[in-house]
Amino acid sequence: MSDFLANNAGLFFALLGAAFATFLAGIGSAIGVGKAGVAAAGVLSEDPSKFGKVLIFQLLPATQGIYGLLVAFLILSNTGLIGQVKEVSTLTGLLYFAAALPIAFSGLFSAIHQGNCAVAAIGTVNKKPDQMGKALILPAMVETYAILALLISILAIFGINAM
Question: Which of 1, 46, 73, 150 is the most exposed place for a label (fewest CB within 10 A)?
């Protein structure tokens, strides 16, 4: 058993990185989307015609989960865990794990905070529907940091492949 673990430690760490990217960014998205959904439901109970506007705000925190899934997919496909399994050294597996961390943690925290901003923006749109554009910019600014983390994770993965 210990030989099996020693021979497959690289794959284990790569899979752990993919799991972290998916799990943590997904948790953040679920929390953010949930908070915004509660606020949106409150608005809809008063004015169902605002569905399209509040739905946009609720969807914003979902992107971090998608980014985590993208990073996980890149790791799984580059290691052959999707398709033909490749031999992955422990060092390479640890590098994939490290490459997943930016989007994992940034996705977790930015989605939660984006959800909070979306809740406030939903309140703004409820009171002043004509301020939709301005209200949209506020939670969208939080997205910037998730995109930066996604970029770093992707660049790191492609850097590992170039080794």
Answer: 1
Length of the chain: 163
pTM, rounded to two decimals: 0.91
- Would you give the DSSP letter of residue 60? T
Backbone phi, psi, residue 81, to 5°: -70, -20
Cβ neighbours for 156, distance < 8 A, ≥ 6 positions apart: 95, 98, 99, 102
Alpha-carbon span 126 to 49, nearest angstrom? 11
Q: Which CATH superfamily is domain 2-162 in?
A: lithium bound rotor ring of v- atpase (1.20.120.610)
The span from the CA of 108 to the CA of 105, in Å, is: 5
